[in-house]
Amino acid sequence: DMAVPIQQLTRNNSPQERQPIPFTLIQRKEKLGDLLYEKRQYGKAKWACIKMKEKQYEQSICLGFMKLMRYICEQNSSGLYLGITIPIVTIVHTNESQSEITQSVTVAYYLPEMLQDEPPHPFDSDIIIEEWPSTIVYSR
Predict the structure, then answer these.
(1) Which pTM was predicted?
(2) Is position 8 within any domain?
(3) Which of 22, 56, 76, 94 is the most interior residue, by most CB within 10 Å?
(4) Strands, DSSP E only, in the chain?
(5) 84: how many CB neighbours lie within 10 A of its CB?
(6) Which family does this protein fall into (predicted)?
């Protein structure tokens, strides 16, 4: 089911074509010279998002990512490969008391700068385009 999107990705996505999302570095945590994580602030922007709720949150992340890849690889109103921005963000949700991780996750793809004003519409109705305010992200 993912053969075409993966072929599209490998044909059109050499490492130099991956667009890093512009950010301001807030904190960098290292241990013995290895990067553990960075705390970053991203500016206000549009993201393609999908919320998934499978039995295991890892499964939700994988399925959400595959749906986003289909959107990126031509299953959108432009019919074009949109290009990869990195990182793809995963939001792990917690219960109301924030004491437990729930099965629900949101997987989000930052729309490239050239698509921010008029993002292509996804064919998959589970994917929504959201405008996020300035956002803090932990990246590893």
Answers:
(1) 0.82
(2) no
(3) 76
(4) 19-20, 23-31, 34-42, 45-53, 85-86, 89-94, 101-110, 127-132, 135-139
(5) 20
(6) Belongs to the HEBP family.
